[in-house]
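Standup notes
- DV: blocked on the single-chain target, sequence here:
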Amino acid sequence: MGSVSQDTYVLPEAKAPTLVLAHPTDVEKLRTWTLNHNEWGGALTLEEYLKREPYFTGIPLTRDGGMTHWILTDSAWSPELGGDRPVLASCESIRKRVLVAAPGDTEVRNGVGHGIGSVFTYPEFRSQGYGGRMLKDVGAALRKWQSGSYGGCDVVCSALWSDIGKLYYAKKGWAAFPSLHVEFPASAGQAQESEGKVLPITYDNLEALCQRDEQLLGETLLRTARETGRTSVAFAPDHDQMRWHLYRDDFITSILFKSAGPNTIKGALAGTQEGRRVWALWSRSYHGSIPAKNVDNNKLYILRLFVESEATEGENPSDETLEAFKAVVQMAQREAAAWHLGKIDMWNPTPITKKLIERCGIQHRWVDREEDSIPSMMWYGDEDVRDIEWVANEKYCWC
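- DV (later): unblocked, structure below
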């Protein structure tokens, strides 16, 4: 699939009007996954990766049409020309609910956002501009794609996470946003003092925390829009969004740790009084099929770090909040060590979280990424994307 007989068919240039977006057949998907396994397969073998990709279409967020596969092909091709339909480049988009607040709003409104991933140009067609052409067309197509979802919402943005720096996608219309993270080391010993102060987050208590998070995030968006005079947007940290990451994590770790059994701990919650709690959700990322041999390259990603008292404490967290934050980080350190993860990354901490990090006494370092996982957004509203406040620009948004 994807091969073309050059005796009977000549590929057009990247600017040709006959090039169009299409949705791949199952056979075309299979060949695309086979070819892009080396780039996107991570610790999975090809056979395992070919099981994971179809699995994604049946889990929260991406099931029921939530994931769309795109290819760039030539509408002028026909079977009579010989060979198979040319698949020049491919990518995926995931429909996500976003929360939006303009400066004069009194209520947050829902919108549709699309996350773009697995951008790939077929090897035999590289250096001819097809990847750039596909992105141009995808950016335009997503402006209306699945508009009307979530009760009649408009599409407000699309986002991707660049692994080739900040300039390439910015030139295509996806502006780069802050890409700072803090890195903590895994440490089973240091984390022991937090035991008894923190509870695990599991699938049983996850939904209620997501609902509380979204409620307070909505208030943050309204406040941010009012104080900055800018439209503020956030990907909704809802139950489906979080479960997509966690189900993905479950699938991969069930393969890498066949004998260990499932890990029910999905995060940590510290504090018992509502309004004073701190919690974090996380997922794991592995390099290589034997995690114990790649500890230094393996990471625990904090998907979402939530400080419930942020609105009331501002940038001056109380000692109670500090202790809760410390307990959450230490449990993450303990989990990282137990699962052969050498470090913990937390993306774009808020001002209060930065204060907590500096005061907690836990070893850490700051990293401002320039090349990989650069959050980038295309805005479909009337505002210039550079005037948009992306709130909660954290790992849970990624896809």
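- Follow-up: The radius of gyration is 22 Å.
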